[in-house]
Design a protein that fits this description.
Blueprint (H helix, E strand, L loop, with lengths): L5 H27 L6 H12 L3 E2 H8 L3 H13 L3 E6 L2 E9 L1 H25 L1 H20 L1
Antiparallel strand pairs: 1-3, 2-3
Helix pairs in contact: 1-5, 2-5
Length: about 150
């Protein structure tokens, strides 16, 4: 029997709360080590560290950012020397985004700090529980995409 979506709304609220807590945990960890940056910059650095040279549109999808928001963020990151945008040889209207050596160095400095925070959280939650929750959320995502 349905309860008017109350349970799904509760799930949505918990997901948002966890997302906010996760974000704050990451930023708190970095501040503890004297690093001042934004979560959005971390998302871009992390994505480009594994998928360098991707189109801005794909980067927007990977980081769940709107095109305008991402474009502004990339402008700042380019001014800071962390990324560069190059024309796509197959379609010059598109820009491909790359880390610069400074961007790779910055990510190399941040990654161990983040890995340590993730490892601490994994110890508390347990890898099995994390996998169970992730699997459940993937299932919810697939259902919502079909509705």
């Amino acid at each position: 029997m349905t309860n008017g979506g109350t349970d799904l709304r509760h799930l949505q609220l918990q997901i948002v709360r966890v997302r906010i807590a996760f974000r704050e945990c990451v930023l708190r960890t970095l501040r503890h080590h004297g690093v001042r940056t934004t979560y959005e910059v971390l998302q871009v650095l992390s994505t480009l560290s594994t998928e360098e040279g991707i189109p801005q549109q794909m980067l927007a999808e990977r980081t769940a950012k709107g095109k305008a928001c991402l474009s502004s963020l990339l402008n700042h990151m380019q001014l800071d020397g962390y990324i560069e945008r190059r024309p796509d040889p197959s379609d010059r209207r598109n820009k491909l985004v790359y880390l610069t050596p400074a961007g790779r160095a910055y990510w190399g400095r941040l990654r161990p700090l983040l890995d340590d925070a993730y490892a601490q959280a994994e110890k508390v939650l347990g890898v099995g529980e994390i996998r169970r929750l992730a699997s459940g959320l993937e299932e919810v995502y697939e259902v919502l995409e079909r509705i």
